[in-house]
Amino acid sequence: MTIFRGTVLDTPGDEVVGTVRLRAQPDAALLVEGGMVTARGAFADVVGGLPSGGHHEVVDLREGLVLPGLVDAHVHYPQVRVLGALGMPLLQWLEECALPEEARLESVDYARGVAAEFVHGLVAAGTTTALVFGSHFAGAVDAFFEAAARAGVRVAAGLVASDRALPRALLTTPDRYYEESLHLARRWHRTGLARYAVTPRFSYSASDALLAACSSVLTDVDGALFTSHVNESNAEVAAVAALFRTADNYVDTYDRHGLVGPHTVLAHNVHTTTPELTLLSARGSAVAHCPSSNAALGSGLFPLRRHVEHGVRVALGSDVGAGTGFSLFKEALQAYLTQRLLGTEGLPLTAPDLLHLATRSGAEALGLGDEVGDLSVGKQFDAVWVRPRRGDPLDVGLRHAASAEDALGRALTLTTPADLGGVWVGGQQVSIVCPSPRASPTTHLARHQRHS
Ligand code: GUN
Ligand code: ZN
Where would I find the Amidohydrolase-related domain in this sequence (predicted)? Predict the structure, then answer.
């Protein structure tokens, strides 16, 4: 058994975003056995309650803060190498930037390299659980599940499906999609920390026949998730409306195939309508809010208040590579800033609201609310240790914080991946060492000279 000692902040309650309360415990002890938190309390009390003569290890995390592992509800594995493209709206960015890169994953060797970089990006940012958009190629999806299993991170992912509107190499057929999906699900679903997710890219690139095949996979793979994109940009919404003349709205393009339910996470939903919010609420579905992506692509400002007022569950997604990076600290801050920009239409968010969005909201959206999302007794020890470097603004901020909530606000504003001292999944520390060492400046220069 292991005792993790530190200042523990989490949001275990069932409050809705906008009213979340923080649980803050300075000098707390979390007793972890078999990956699970089995006791929690003041350090002296937990240690005092242990049977005498037993062996336990104490991991001292008192410098900084211990938070639950972060949950990314929407992120694309094949896009890690195209992060940072600026100046394009969604459909242009897909055509010029994302899709040409995604076509390269036809090569399993290439995909393996991308998968290792992607998983490293997740873990290094403190993300311990993620709902991941996979690849259009089954071999590349295998490569991803292998990399995730090797790293020991919790993931749900699947084969991405499209049968129109994209480059030919990325297209499939309903029958092929069904067969390849079942094959992948048999190999990966509920093995280790992995689950299968049915992932049509978006209804713009998926015919009704393909969405029907998605529905069959969802029925035949017990416990699979469903995820896709919805109402992201105005141009995309108009294009979908033109393709699905008989659908009530964008959400209905999925719902009429039985794809919208409690196992569903739809990304973006920026340009939503009241009937769609009512439907999502009735179905118990979740929306992945991807604030930095929405800002980078100029998609729009997310109407969080309307989601909350309709009772629609909202989690947070980095949306790498349209988003600006893996860090859910940064996404949480961007979510806060977005609501500020909306003025009176925005929902004022506190630091506890933001922590909930980045942890427990995501765990619930992914159907893992009983296992992860906070650090209560009975939950898995999925955790991140925020340990600022001496003298950095984060360190200064934490040392001068007036309260735990204040400290959390500073952590959410200032933490970068370089400030994480450790990341644990199910009690196991996951390695945050980069898979491919950076070329030294000399090597880089030498290469450059050879090619010029
Ligand atoms: N809609 C369809 N595909 C994508 C994607 O890769 N990224 C984003 N942000 N939106 C999408
Ligand atoms: Zn996306």
Answer: 65-392
